[in-house]
Amino acid sequence: MNQDREHLRLLAIFHYVGAGLAALFSFFPLLYTTIGAIFIFAARHGTPKPGEELPPEFLGWIFVGIGSFLFLLGIAMAICILLAGRCLSRNKHYTFALVMACIECLFIPFGTILGIFTIIALLREPVKGLFAAAQTPA
User: Fold this and answer.
1) What is residue 79's predicted lDDT score, i.e. its pLDDT?
2) What is the SS3 assignment for 20?
């Protein structure tokens, strides 16, 4: 039983680290947003050189939209991974932790490793018992 608690504690710590990395990498799509903002600014205020055209404004809005969407998606995923780690440390919300472990398997290579180890740990009967015991009021 203590070994299962230790495994869940370590998995929770790794989930916190994974959430931090996911939050860090979610800032990269903001480069697309910046490029889109530059396109919009150039289309509105730029003066074309002879023989050249300015980029169309709608192209800038596409970049801004896609970059913002990917940024928000990354932040939401980081928050969900953080919450899954919290669920593992408190032995609550078994289903959420299991679903997040399955989703994490999509993020190669670290998410896959973390997701598989989390699934293996959560599918053991003693761990299920820890979650069930935490759900019942004392």
Assistant:
1) 97
2) helix
What number of H helices and E strands is found in the chain?
A: 6, 0
Question: Which of residues 19 and 47 earns the better pLDDT score?
Answer: 19
Using one digit for the tens of pLDDT, what is the confidence trace for 33-86?
999 999 899 888 877 777 777 778 889 999 999 999 999 999 999 999 999 999
Instruction: Write the CA distances from 96 to 36, 70, 130, integer angstroms.
Output: 36, 23, 15
Question: What own/partner pairs with CB < 8 Å and gap ≥ 24 does 38-46 have?
Answer: 39/63, 40/64
Whole-prediction pTM value?
A: 0.86
Instruction: Indicate the SS3 state at residue 50.
Output: coil
| Rg for the chain, CA atoms, rounded | 22
Cα(104)–Cα(115) distance, rounded to whole angstroms?
A: 5
d(CA 122, CA 118): 6
pLDDT score, position 138? 56
What is the C-alpha to C-alpha distance for residues 36 and 23, in angstroms, rounded to an integer? Answer: 22
CA distances from 68 to 12, 27, 61, 136 (A): 29, 10, 10, 42
